Amino acid sequence: MSRRDPHDVVVVGGGVVGAACALALAEVGLDVCLVEARRPPAWSREAPDLRVYALAPDNVALLEALGAWRDVRNARAHPYRRMHVWDAAGGGPVVFDADALARTELGFIVEHGLLVDALWRRLEQSGVRLRCPATIEALDEDDDGLRLRLDDGSRVSARIAMAADGAASRLRSLAGIEVDAHDYAQQGVVGYVRTELPHQDTAWQRFLPTGPLALLPCADGTCSIVWTLPTDEGARVLALEDGAFAQALTSAFEARLGEILPVSPRVAFPLRRQLAARQQRGRILVAGDAAHAVHPLAGQGVNLGLRDVAALQRSVRDALRLRARWDSPQRLARWARSRRSDNTIAAYSFEGINRLFSNDAVVPTLLRGHLLGIAGRMPPLLGMFWRRAAGL
């Protein structure tokens, strides 16, 4: 296949957001190159990935349009039809129900490794040029385009570049884009468990003074847990032997689904909020974790990154339809302002919820459960919250 030089776009980073970005821009007719340090391992049904996502409907639609969703759905994607949220301090729950919202499901629980694997299989059929394994070492930019020097000494030229290479993004750093970071002094303990009672296709979340505990429904009757704890407590809980861990987890979840037993190894990851000062500088764009890392309590991290991709694809498609410059500085800046605004609002909203519920101060404790209960009795308000989270 003949390829233009320079490319229209070079995407740095081949995770979920980077791979989806490369496919989305190739789908509207751009010449795309993807640079990734290492090829992701093939997904294995026998070794479930501990990292899972709660994919919202708008992003399921994006993945379907990119040709990746059918493989994911056929392999192992579990729909959740309800969300049940309550506070340990009391008060009523908030319940989101697919039937009440006239939906077949609220979203899908999908393993990270499965999603990346499906996207890469699409990449190999898409005409996207893959430079893997490869890392970037230098960036040169002028009014006409940019050039990335790779670790093998070769260069890749393009009209724009997308930094989708994670929270420690090398391309973002080379572009001189600073980040604002805040350490929550919390860890997220993750793993798979089996509950005594069925999970009812429900995403459960209980707010505790130490942080939220979520159980996400998965295939074969298992659940994925995300247990937010202060750093020291997270390390202690992670080190428990299985019996003691099961007892602690069952108690923390109020035995809502009976006894909970671990069925996989457990890992923990540090939690922080990190926002890039901007999502565009010159011909460099920033998306996904390279642009925004948020608290996992609302399950919106990868959803925000895929919305970065969908918004950019719409911007390029509209420009091509109007025979306008898809990479004009004004158009790129408009995309960046819109996405950073949405991502910043989301990041600080999740942080505020975490601060309100993850403490045992008297006033927040007295108020928060009752506020949840009031919200839970207002269907229009619940519908508005869900449509926002669902990207609809």
Automatic annotation (TrEMBL):
PROSITE patterns reported for this sequence: PROKAR_LIPOPROTEIN (PS51257), UBIH (PS01304)
Keyword set includes Oxidoreductase: yes
Signal peptide range: none
Keyword Methyltransferase: no
Domain FAD-binding: from-to ranges: 8-321
Cofactor dependency: FAD
NCBIfam families: Ubi-OHases (TIGR01988)
Protein name, as recorded: FAD-dependent oxidoreductase
Naturally occurring in which organism (per UniProt): Luteimonas composti
